Amino acid sequence: MSNIFSSSIGKKLIMSLSGLFLVTFLLLHVSINLTALFSREAYEAACAFMDTNIFIQIMVPVLALGFVIHILFSIIITLKNRNARPVKYAVGNNTEASSWAAKNMFVLGLIVIGFLGLHLTHFWAKMQLQHFLGHHGENAYELLTRLFGQWYYCAIYVVWIIALYFHISHGFWSAFQTLGLNNSKWIPRLQLIAKLYAIVVALGFISIPVYFWFGLGQ
Amino acid sequence: MNFKLKIWRQKNNKSKGRFENYTIENVSSDTSFLEMLDILNDQLICTGQEPVAFDHDCREGICGMCSLYINGRAHGPDDEVTTCQLHMRKFKDGDTITIEPWRSGAFPVVKDLVVNRYAFDQILQSGGFISVNTGGVPDGNAIPVGKEDADESMDAAACIGCGACVATCKNGSAMLFVSARVSSLAKLPQGKIEAKRRAKAMVAKMDELGFGGCTNTQACEAECPKAISISHIARLNREFLCAKLQD
Ligand code: FES
Questions:
Q1: Mean pLDDT, residues B39-63
Q2: What was the ipTM of the complex prediction?
Q3: In this structure, what are the phi and psi dihedrals at residue B204, rounded to the nearest 5 degrees?
């Protein structure tokens, strides 16, 4: 294990493990959200579960740590990578192979955390955090109806999730590549799985504002 | 065919370079890219100007010496060829062609389009070899190697060390080069003995020399004249991480 994290591959190991942890969390998050499509009661029950379950309570700080580590190492790695080419090319790279997402992971990540701040203040701080503090927050379902009743809030949310889609569509398979769990057969397969995973997560999240915007909430 | 050329000129490593514009006329479409530069240099010499310095040797795509970044692509607009194997028919008559040296902190410009790729030799010296005790030549078939392993190893060994992977990578990463060397040896019984030490030493050297890290953009595999797959990078990651975890 000696000084593994001082190496470039060691740092990327941290990126891939924290990234995989974060995308697993997203699957849980989107499943909870989707209960809102069934009924108000189902959503409120799901929220109550998230507020009181002991495992979830333990995982919240771990999750926060996961975000911090992922962001911190992305900055360290990006800075080092930028330094590797002190003199830039006059003609930008015209290679067609690399996906747009792959080339813009850092920018996509910035968009994701930018809106994440907004999201945390508008939702999390009024929901789970209130329960952790022993208060009674605003009714979760009402909160959804109120925020997603505003068109600009829906728009911001959708842009945010689209950035997240691109980030995951590259990050997911990239994590396996960095872990060394890949070969010529699995590269296209994992890339497909990454796209599917990103589509499921993104559509799941986007369905909520769409549902409430069209006034389908009770 | 006629072309406008925008070529990076730099006197030496210390001086500041800049682009110079040239025009070249009546070039046959069957001229290779380097021959086109030869013609240009002839003209420059005849008019008492300094010819453009560029690297080349075999001119048949096997030595890895030629190294030009042409219109935003390492080795130019053709796929799976080196600059010396690129022909002018890949361009349109009247095109403006921008020619730059490989840009990487680890590959300093020596003059004009020539860069110093000694960093690759240093990486190889750190572990890209097999230690063999001197003695008689061993029997060719004494160590059996499976067909699939041999193929995989040969695919990786096709690397000519030109540096197009570094030149094209947005991170200036040398991972494709290092992985090709590690992979070609890791797949053979002769190479397995020193596999752990090799992966660790070569990655450490690569980091030390200032190459960037891989973010799996796949640009390297697209521009590699030998089409070396990024699956070798996955193997390098595996070899490196396993070796480190066992330390
Ligand atoms: S000159 Fe040898 S590969 Fe191009």
A1: 97
A2: 0.91
A3: -60, -40
